[in-house]
Amino acid sequence: MIGHDIVDLAQLPALFKHYFLDSAYDEMFDRRGQPREHYRPLFQRLNEFSPATLRQRQQAADITFLNQGITFTVYSSDEGTERIFPYDLLPRIITSDEWAIIEKGLKQRITALNLFLNDIYHDGRIFTDNVVPRALVYSCKHFRREMIGLNVPKDVYVAIIGTDLVRLEDGRFVVLEDNLRVPSGVSYMLANRQVIKNVFPRLFSSYNVRPINHYGQVLLSTLRSFARIHRLSRR
Amino acid sequence: MLLTPGVYNSAYFEHTYLARQMGIELVEGRDLVVHNNIVYMRTTAGLRRVDVIYRRIDDDFVDPLAFRPDSILGSAGLLNAYRAGNVALANAIGTGVADDKALYAYVPAIIRYYLGEEPIIGNVETYLLEDAHQRAYVLDNIEKLVIKAVGESGGYGMLIGPHSTQPQRDEFKRAVLANPRNYIAQPTLSLSRAPCFIDGAVEPRHVDLRPYILYGEDIQIVPGGLTRVALRRGSLVVNSSQGGGSKDTWVLYD
Question: Does the structure show a pLDDT above 80 at B247?
Fold first, then answer.
């Protein structure tokens, strides 16, 4: 699978001796094996570290996760069910332009899915207009008859969502799964950030990274927007 | 308040973490009582009315009177209180219909129908196995495709064709034929790779991205999300229940 155009990888520092490129999109290197612009500072910094230093940082991160009790449960495993959440030391970096598309696309998709839920539990216009078969929706395991005709606060059905995106060979993001029930993992997002800021403080501050630590407050104000006082405006 | 199934749930750490971040109560079903269609929380100072519940319990378990009668995780009468408009649930009941894997194929059409816009982010090509033509194609090419059970998540109920054995493929063929509505198929995707620090060296591993979206007064997305990593070499499965890990995700300013 390795093409002739990536021989440059042989000239990469020893730390990258097992690295390879194939038809899959690589987040760090372009097709010619050159680090992408937004990964260049990370690439340079990694090459300044000795392997021993990197191992030390890894251990520091591991201990932080362990001490904070950041674990998850695996059912039906022989090795015990409680595990430290496996964590990788190197950040994944997304440019402002890439994010602008993701953000716009997700807002569009969630708006439409929320309108869809409101419709199927009320008038079902999308069925009578023959866009989605009624039988398909009514046969869903998670369709709830109890919700038919019920108005929900602010007409918001999906308040907390975790959509899975993947990136294809041409670099485009596509949606793999819409998780509209009880998506999990956001605590790992927050914990990862805390840990990496401690482990790579200089690297982190050399990048202009958008903060995420307000998530809890946004979640709280989202929940509060559904409280009774606001619900007086219900239809 | 945040309603958790309790300490045995795989995401219990997250429930405690979020409740602490928000400064809200973390409760289990047995801490709630519904009286005259109003939900109360039992506290040491008596009952306290509850307005909004962030529930981390599946629909099936929220109310034994309405759904699974054997559930001890929810609270009896909660659905009636919800129907009476006396308590809000996030998310609403019945949202799972819109993330059904068979319905997924219709999402681009749903976007065009309600918004009159082209989807900004696309879908993965999806075969509906209820359709005889699509089913025939899938069964002939099963070794190239991924088959997924529509009601499952977390990487369970899935066959990855190129990494499967003949007995596994035969088993899925039988299951598909017995209940085609219950399965979809997709091409095996070549997920992007990101550098990971593994055994003292940097190696590429497949990743996905799960941004977290919040919809209250308006829609807000905290920049980034959870990048999940298939840490096993060559693996395409990023789910934490299946040997996946995660990495920090940095979204840069301009």
Answer: yes
